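Q: Second attempt. The first request was missing the SMILES, so the protein and adenosine-5'-diphosphate are both included now.
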Amino acid sequence: MEITPSPALNLIWGANGSGKTTLLEAVHLLNSAKSFRSSGFKDLVSHQELLFGVSGQLSDREGQVRSIRIQKTEKTSRIEVDSQAVTSAATLATTFPLLLVDPHSFGIVEGGPRIRRSLIDRAVFHVEPDFIAAAKTYLNGLAQRNALLKTRQRSPQLDYWNHEVASSGERVHEARLRCVRFLNEMLATEEVLEQIVGRISLKYRQGWREGSSLLETLERQGVAEWQAGQTLSGPHKAELIIQTQGESLARIASRGQIKAVVIKLMATLCDYIHTRRTIRPILMVDDFGAELDDLMLGLTLKMVRDTGAQAFLTTIHSQLAKKVGADDDALFHVEHGEVSPVL
Ligand SMILES: Nc1ncnc2c1ncn2[C@@H]1O[C@H](COP(=O)(O)OP(=O)(O)O)[C@@H](O)[C@H]1O
Ligand SMILES: [Mg+2]
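A: Got both inputs this time. The predicted holo structure:
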């Protein structure tokens, strides 16, 4: 299938099983060389095929165009950017930021802390140039420190790793905090969402005792750490709590309200990346209409539009097609894995 999308809003409409999610998956592959649905090669190719390929052209606002090609067989994978082979998929992710809302995204509100940490980290990755290096140093230091704790014997090396983990951990923490502050500033003046669920705010718990430095905390090494044989404090234990009027959102919100909050969070992350990097991410919402009533649909559609991002929304509802129609909007119909513009 082939599509020439609008730089603004693209609504992909089609019956169940027509190929809508597959289209979003193709865009995701261009961004990461990975699928968001499956990690198995066999799930990504049609029955008995030996390879698959995706290619796309990205044009920035200045009109500079980049070509990306991905070709995979069961054992090999070839990534090209502007006809040059690229060896790391991480290089690919830096070409354009991508934010996706799909059924797994309910986990942002309903799931464990790891999902929220990773959401923030992926956005920070696009904005703060040193973040990846700090996060890698931190994770490596953590592994070394944990190995020493497991020996249950004080080693002179522990002091070295305490410093390494503390300094990189504080950098990871500070970068996340800048992102969370931005989100909170934006959410504090958000009126549409307030009508739906009340005012949303984020509370960031850093993962170690407030008011202490990470180094002090690591040097204290409670008995519990020796017993557990692992580091119990640090940004890997951080928690982001999504709350409304002091209550945890997960406890009180309906599925539709959660979906609206998730879309708003993604839209705000889009603004965060755009303000700091002057590059607008691509925003994708799979099964856009599901769980949302008419009012919510209109409000969330506005949230997506207000980002100014290139957006891909899929739906099974032909009525939703009536809600698009602004100048730059594009409507596509998908049928049996083929996509065509609706004129
Ligand atoms: N272009 C295509 N060529 C071959 N198979 C496809 C194509 N598009 C979709 N499929 C297959 O059709 C099935 C349903 O596709 P999916 O994208 O999940 O549908 P939808 O999201 O519209 O419900 C999947 O098994 C997918 O692999
Ligand atoms: Mg689908």
